[in-house]
Write a structure and sequence with these properties.
Length: 201
């Protein structure tokens, strides 16, 4: 697989998580309270799989490789992507902060959680589209075969050294169980698990 294909496969998993979060919010609003454990699981999944692992690969590996080939660091699509990652982090902090009270049925906390989750879902869906349609095809054209090979090896390092062996697979399982709980299709997760991610076993 090419580096951008790995990132796109991760996008499909992140989209499953977003669908779960959306279903979780709808159920919480109907019930008047948030389900604490799955809410904590999804925040953990977003923080580690989507942000630390996936955005880490983009911010620390892919984007610098593009900048090295002449993409502007400031005032271009890369700075927009970085700003959106930061906006996402702010939404996730807000979600994490309101889980406890929202799970106790506090309506203000529930509204705060729903607000942050809704903002995050909308932000990430459009962010993913921009990367899939514009930035990644650009990266694929910019980087030659050797550079893509190097990038693949760096992605592998992110998985094994920064995340820890087996972490990626563990989060795929969390995504699958949340999808089952909320009646969301987990087919993309199964494909990611079968197709292998960025590392060899
Ligand atoms: Fe991104
Ligand atoms: Fe991404």
């Amino acid at each position: 697989m090419k580096p951008v294909e790995i990132l796109m496969q991760e996008h499909r998993v992140i989209e499953v998580a977003l669908n779960c979060l959306e279903a979780m919010m709808e159920r919480a609003q109907a019930d008047g309270r948030l389900e604490k454990e799955p809410a904590e699981q999804i925040v953990d999944l977003i923080r580690n799989f989507a942000d630390r692992c996936h955005h880490g690969k983009e911010e620390d590996r892919l984007f610098p490789a593009m900048v090295a080939k002449g993409m502007p660091q400031e005032g271009g699509p890369i700075s927009v992507m970085l700003a959106e990652h930061d906006m996402g982090r702010a939404f996730v902090r807000q979600m994490a902060k309101s889980i406890e009270c929202a799970a106790d049925g506090d309506s203000a906390a529930l509204a705060e959680f729903a607000n942050a989750a809704g903002g995050y879902i909308q932000l990430l869906r459009s962010h993913i589209q921009k990367e899939d349609r514009i930035l990644f095809p650009m990266a694929d054209r910019m980087l030659d075969e050797e550079e893509q090979k190097d990038l693949l090896a760096e992605f592998e390092t992110v998985e094994t050294e920064h995340m820890g062996a087996g972490t990626h697979e563990r989060y795929l399982k969390v995504a699958e169980s949340l999808a089952a709980r909320y009646g969301v299709s987990s087919a993309p997760v199964a494909r990611a698990a079968a197709g292998g991610c960025c590392h060899h076993h």
